[in-house]
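Course assignment 3, question 2. Fill in each field.
Student: A.L.
Task: Predict the tertiary structure for the chain below.
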Amino acid sequence: MDRTAPRAAALVIASAAALAFMGCASTPRPDAGEDDPVVQLSPAEAAAQTYARGEALAQQGLTDQALAEFERAILENPELTVAYLGAGEIHRQRGDFTRAEQSFARAASLEPRNFDAQYMHALSLQLLNRLEEAIRAYLRALSIEPNDFEANLNVATAYLQLAEPREALVYGLRAVRIDGNSAAARVNLAAVYAALDEHEMAVTEYQQAAELMTLTPELLLSLADSLGKVGRYAEMESTLERVVQTERSAVALERLGSARFRLRKYPSALAAFREAVAVDPNHYPALNGIAVCRLNDFLWSDRTDLEAHREAIDTMRQSLRINRDQPKIVELLARYK
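Answer field:
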């Protein structure tokens, strides 16, 4: 189990110790005679023993058998929190987040001060995109263990998903304080800063994340966006050139064209926009880039380059057919058509 592995291991040890304490009296000795008494397990003891078998099976990767044992333990003792946690984790690993949430919710209701129950319930809610409920559950978990790294990281992410970066900031900062060497925490905090329009801070966090992880197109694109927001266009261009070396996506090429345009490298900007459209003909930001470049060509020719004018108008119309909600393009088209 991913998140709960250390605690699950502790539970296995505890269950084994309990069974050892109960000793062989729970089952007949091999040499027991017919007249020897057989100790009957109480429902709670039977459930604990069933749970321990399930946890051992889960550790071996035998999840079908483990789930059957967890469910049997719940029937024997409907208040056995760890059995709900074990079943919920198997459902989560299988991608059945609805059943996982139900199991973790029951565990959390049985033991409101059980951190694992609250955390795993929150995680399952987040996986179901029930973000407001997930945040409340994460906050309950953090009231028990305020400095848990993953809970702080995840609640910050949930707030970002709800477009509430101001609320995310305190938890994003705390996650970085807890583990400053976590690339995930650095990227998450950078995204919070970017959403708050604090792009210098975002650049710093993205760059620190880049030192901690294998560079990905997603990270470099985000870094390039923030570099552009603070006017560091040369760094934006070089960052995007690294992206397109490995992934010539329409998004990366269009942003590369934007960086070059701001650096007044107009022919190479136009070339990048054209390549982006060749990759994805429906990527309207790249169509807009072509239109602006060609409008510039028209204006710089003292309005004599009619081919540039025609292409600019046609490209803007094509862009608006894809996305009509572009007031600036509508204005340009009205002005120059």
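Instructor remarks: The CA atoms of residues 267 and 293 lie 8 Å apart. Residues 4-33 have pLDDT under 50 and may be disordered.
Grade: pending
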